[in-house]
Amino acid sequence: VSGSYDEDVRVWNIATGKPAQILSGHEGFVYAVAFHPDNQQIVSGGYDGTVRLWDSQTGEQVRVFGE
After folding, report:
1. What mean pLDDT, rounded, does the chain reach?
2. Phi–psi pair at 37, nearest 5 degrees
3. Share of the chain above pLDDT 90, in %
4. For residue 57, which of 30, 38, 33 has the smallest C-alpha distance?
5. Phi first, then psi: what are they for 31, rounded to 5°?
6. Which of 16, 19, 38, 46 has the most CB atoms lying inside 10 A of its own CB?
7. What are the residue ranges spanned by the domains of the chain?
8. pTM
């Protein structure tokens, strides 16, 4: 999983080297990302001052902190 200056979070397919999911919602570059230990959620922090929680299976944004 990676964050970038294009405001997206990408979950990568290791076998193909291509994104398996692109998670959009931040309004500034994404500078921190992590998987929850259960691998069911991803958390991301962005320059927009928000922390976002994502469902790693569906790619849906679950919650936004800091808005």
Report:
1. 96
2. -55, -25
3. 93
4. 38
5. -110, -5
6. 46
7. 2-65
8. 0.90
Choose among 3, 46, 48: nearest CA to 22.
3
Q: Which amino acid is at 13?
A: N
Sole residue written with tokens 């994104």: 19
Residue 16: its pLDDT value, please? Answer: 98
Q: Which letter, b or e, does each residue of 26-65 get, where b requires 16 or more Cβ atoms within 10 Å of its Cβ? A: beeebeebeeeeeeebbbbbbebebbbebebeeeebeeee
Distance separating the N- and C-terminal Cα atoms of the chain: 23
pLDDT tops 80 at residue 10: yes
Q: Which helix (H) or strand (E) holds 19?
A: strand 18-24
